[in-house]
What we know:
Blueprint: E1 13-17, E2 20-21, E3 31-41, E4 53-67, H1 73-79, E5 109-115, E6 126-134, E7 151-157, E8 160-164, E9 168-172, E10 175-176
Antiparallel strand pairs: 1-2, 1-5, 3-4, 4-7, 5-6, 6-7, 6-10, 8-9
Amino acid sequence: MAAAIVLPISGPYIGLWNGRALGTQNDDGFVMSVQSQGQEIAATDAYGMTLVEAIYRGMNWRCRMRGLEFNKAGLLDLLQIFGRTGGFTTLTPRLDPAAIGDRWSFFSAVLLLTAILGNPPTMPQTITADSACLAPGQTTEFMLTSKMREMPIDMVLLPYSAVVSGVGTVIVPFTTT
């Protein structure tokens, strides 16, 4: 058998948030993204508005998903992290005035993504974000129609302190195995 020219990495993941299932996702699965923050140095007398340098100012990691199982407790929990009425499989959000003004991290929980296939072809095997929650300002919508209800969710992965093997204690948005 001939060796492959390209050795792609692929494979789906299952997800839990706060220990509750996020269910089956659309074909894009869980989409991890990072926005690197920086101050552009692009207004100089010698080079006009040419970008000549930048100052690193941090990074913001997110996890985006589109749940296909509308009634999964993890998805419903995320939509109702600031207040709810009813059980874990209901959607009755409550505006809790006592929660207004709390830190966002107070509502965060562990996001755990685990590869279904072995290693290889999938890497990383797990992604664990200890401080994940609904992203500020994100919009979730679902259609009340005869079509399947999908639930788009955008989560922010807040940085936290973790012990990483061989490195020690560091600030991370998530760890992997």
